[in-house]
Amino acid sequence: MIMRKFTVLLFSIGAVLLFITGQILKADDDNSNFFSEIPPRASVFGKYSGLKQRFHCTKALYKMTFRNNLRNFHDIGLNKKTEDWCGTTLQPGYIVYYGGLWYVWEKQEKKDPSDEILATMNGTYTGLIKKKNCRNSMRTKGKFIEFGHITSPMCDSPKKSDTGYFVYVKPYVYIYEKKIIPRQYMPADVDVGGKYSDLINVVRCDLQGEQKYDESKMKDSGVVLEFDDEYQRNRLWPDMCGESLGQGHYVYKYPNWYSWKNSSAESEE
Fold this sequence. Notes:
3 domains
């Protein structure tokens, strides 16, 4: 009888611990999202662990872009050498480029994410419009490219352009209708008091935060900037992080660019 009660007690304790652990894991999962300080793409969706370094270096960015068609998200892989990158000593480790920053990780936890995970960027994109083999027209050292929201011909074909969220995973280009953005984690002020609506896209660009506005770096001031003028958008675009926002009204608040479809200012005109 005593043994039976003891067994029941152990089972109850185990169930409670399992519940608590589940809640902790769930909380951790909830905290790991597009708007996290260290977003899931920075580790290639958990491929790497043990963050050693995080820094920006535009000189290395331009060099990599020229050689590898580097965009906003790139898995560089293992670096065994110690080098000077823009005054920072690059340590040996696994390098990922994302949002204008270089991340160096201590170890590789698992193999490359499957093509299915990469093709949707871990469930970011839904509503597949088109998929096409583009092996002969895509030139990049990496396995994948996240282009963003664009209107472009597929595989250098000039006949017809498609509009959507483009992702390349060797050897296919995928075009999607929708991008899932976890709005519950998004800063409340990036719609500028309700001025903008119908969010089209969000692009991570920590690098933009290094630029100054009113004598302070944007990453330090927390300023919300609007870029509604076509000239401003065209002028700023080369300084963004290589992923297309698409058409819309642009807002920047560190570390993200936001593209909105509608503006209340337009309806008042």
